[in-house]
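Tutorial handout. Part one gives the primary structure; part two gives the three-dimensional structure as tokens.
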Amino acid sequence: MSPRESIATDDAPGAIGPYSQAIAVDGWVYTSGQIALDPRTGELVGDDAPAQTRQVLSNLVAVLAAAGCTPADVVRTTVFLADMGDFAAVNEVYATVFGGDAPPARACVAVKTLPRGGLVEIDAVARRG
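Part two.
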């Protein structure tokens, strides 16, 4: 069994709790959920779900890159929405990163609240090439 590797990058917001941006083990990368925080300011970006989704995905792609992965390496995501009414709008933005012939498996759930009052949170599992 290979040791766990903590993944960190300044191109995504730092953890706001006792967790890693991602953990890699045995060729797999497990990201923590990303919300729409600007990595430079730590402030929430965007007033609506599509704008926040763009920032969330930018953060997630940065963490994946720090782990040596691309969106094409992602096999599963979980999308958390503060309002399931945003489902279609989030899907439009999500498809710009995870569209194509074989998008990752995914779960999407509505939650009561997200950290910092966010509207969208996404995590991912990727396989290192």
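Part three, for discussion. The chain has one domain: 5-127. The longest strand covers residues 74-81.
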